[in-house]
Amino acid sequence: MHDWRAAIFAASCAGLIMHAGSVGAQLAATPILLAQGAGGETTTDVPADAATRLPPVVPDAANEAAAAATPGWFGWGLAPLRWGGSIISEVRVDKSADQPRRLQQNEIANIKGSSYIWQPWFGLVSGGLGFLSSKERRSDGAGLADNQTPEASSNAVTGNGEVTLFPVSRFPFNAYFDVSDSRANGELSTSDISSTRFGVRQTYQPPEGNANYGASFNRSTLESAAFGRDTVNALAASMNRNVGPHAFDASGSHTRNTRSKTRESTALSQLTARHSYRPEPELSVESLASASSSDFHLLSAGVPTANRSQFAQASTFANWRPEEGSPLFVTGGGRMFRSMIASNAGETEALTLSGNGAATYALSRQTSVSGSATITQLMSDTINALLTAQNANVTHIGDPVGVLGVTYTWTAGANVANQTGLPEGNRQNLGGQFGHGVTRSLMLGEGSHVNFSLGQSLGTNFDTVTARSQTLSHNGSASWRLTRDAATSAFVSVLGADSRTSGTNENQFQLVNFQASGQVQFSRNSSAAANLTVQGVRQSTPSTPKAGFNFNSSGNLSYFHLRAFDVPRLRYTALYSINDTQFTTRLQGDVNAPRERVTQSFEQRLDYNLGRVAFRLSMRIAEIEGRRDALVFFRMARDFGGF
After folding, report:
1. In this predicted model, what pLDDT tens digit does every residue of 386-417 receive, in sequence order?
2. For position 26, what pLDDT does the model report?
């Protein structure tokens, strides 16, 4: 079997060079498209140097003879097929909290391949088929129904397919499907989950190249005895177009999630449009309009709850400077916002209309003054008011000064504000701020340096409604950066901040943050990588006393050794990952989100290859959906074919 890329390149070159000839002659002469005559012989041979040499010029007589030998308009044949597969045997022992120990033995066979239709530029196809035979034994009968036994066996068929039409054109089309099983794809989960995915996508770009259009549909279904069926449907479309100084963008989406066991469902729709106008560098106008709606039917402590909401907004914002380098900078804009929220407790609606303008003037390189004004109309079920606000401030930034090897900087400012239309009447506010800090940078060696910083700020504020308040803040940070070569780079930082407000709105706020990222090459065979963030926040008020720091962590740490225990081809991997916050879920319409949330995981792996046979021994301890889970996993896989 010949090289896939060479075959595609040869097909493209042959098709372009022979474009002037007849269609029948092209199909007879192109080496990767097979034409079978009435008594001809089908062949799949492609010259070894087909990717680097041009096909010879075919005389007209030969073209006519080839066309006559081809039945009909053109003949069909089989394109070169790139194929492969694997045979896998697995054993896994899993123990979750409050669940019996499970012993699973899986036998898996997969075959996959890829080719093209007619010509590689016309259509690319790929697919696979797999079979899974699984035996399971539990340590006892806990959690089993009356008609179940501690021993069970099951079979599953998996497969996938993908087709792309006109892949390098201005209008490519893609469709795919995928049927998988968590036991067959090596996924480490506490329950056996089968997944079915399907999707289509169409994009288009006009000949001018100044626009792009696209639409897609994706469907994801997860099934398990633990949670039933979980289905997400996601429909999306987008466009962008540039016309002179104008740029237009629009996108829309609709997602729906349904869960069979709990009867929960969510539906979310969103539409966004943006227009940018930039006739000259000194003037720009940005306009945005969006509308969204959500419909949630969920369970809260076993009680069904319903919540519907609709939001719509439109805004425009303009920046203008009289000329490049001018000390005057002017901004202005307007906004409309409408909301509707309905729940079991009732329904509320609100409408807000506002306009604003602001100007900043640089008196010098260090000093600037600014002023702004805002008018807002509030309309809701309980209020109808017209509010106005005016604000003016001055800011001065001192020049950096070097003192005793450190750099000292300082800033100062003052502001005055007025508000009208409030329920308590007109309101005035006067405030001032002063801040200063020092920084120091030290070189520790080649490519290694440390930065330190300390800062302090004091702000005082007098308000005609809430009287006086003062805020004192401190912050400090230290960071270390190492840059030796492409294989070794590291960054570590620690930051702490403390803010205390006395008087009106008394409160305290503390923050600590640790970050580590980069990769380090210890030796020829061993390396480590990190991307970890740990942040703690503590806040208190007179009504809510201190309750300790609330920590949130995310990231991963990894260590690799390509020659473990000095054994050739034996690889050791240690992986630690943590994610306390889950930002997207299937309830929010994310087709790629998993059903089970893994908050922490520590896994150690040993991999060994012997020819085309691969062995893996894995041990993992994880926290999944608040439950502890331990797993030991062994896999032996034998690959065949050339895929």
Report:
1. 999 999 999 999 999 988 789 999 999 999 99
2. 35
* Cα atoms in the Cβ-side hemisphere of radius 13 Å centred on 115: 17
Residue 260 lies in a domain: no
**Tokens representing residue 246 in the block:** 């104008």
- Cα–chain-centroid distance for residue 304? 31
User: Of all helices (H) and strands (E), which one includes residue 21?
Assistant: none
CA–CA separation, 32 vs 2, rounded Å? 11
Q: Is residue 632 part of a domain?
A: no
DSSP 275-328: EEEEEETTEEEEEEEEEEEEEEEEEETTEEEEEEEEEEEEEEEEEE-SSTT-SE
Name the region of 445 (left: φ>0; alpha: ψ -120 to 50; beta: rest): left
Residue 7: what are its φ and ψ, rounded to 5°?
-65, -45
Are residues 630 and 95 in contact, defined by beta-carbon separation less than 8 angstroms?
yes
* Pair 44, 10: CB distance under 8 Å: no
Distance CA(181)–CA(155), nearest Å, equals 10
Q: Which residue has the tokens 């399971």?
A: 136
What whole-number distance in Å separates Cα of residue 282 and Cα of residue 274?
A: 20
How high is the pLDDT of residue 190?
61
Residues 456-472: tens digit of each pLDDT: 999 999 988 877 899 99
The answer to whether 369 and 394 are in contact (CB under 8 A) is: yes
Please count the structural domains in the chain: 1
pLDDT level of residue 545 (50, 70, 90 thresholds): confident
SS (H, E, C) 125-147: EEEEEEEEEEEEEECCCCCCCCC
User: What percent of the chain has a predicted confidence (pLDDT) above 90?
Assistant: 56
| Closest to 64 measured CA to CA, from 11, 16, 33, 21 | 21
- Whether residue 344 is contained in a domain is answered as no
The answer to whether 288 and 314 have CB atoms below 8 angstroms apart is: yes
Are residues 498 and 534 in contact, defined by beta-carbon separation less than 8 angstroms? no
Containing 333, the helix (H) or strand (E) segment is strand 328-343
Closest to 270 (Cα-Cα) out of 240, 213, 311: 311
pLDDT in tens, 250-270: 999 999 999 988 888 999 999
9 assigned to some structural domain: yes
Beta bridge partners of 304: 299
Secondary structure E strands in 446-466: 448-463
Q: Which residue segment(s) compose the domain that 31 sits in?
A: 4-80
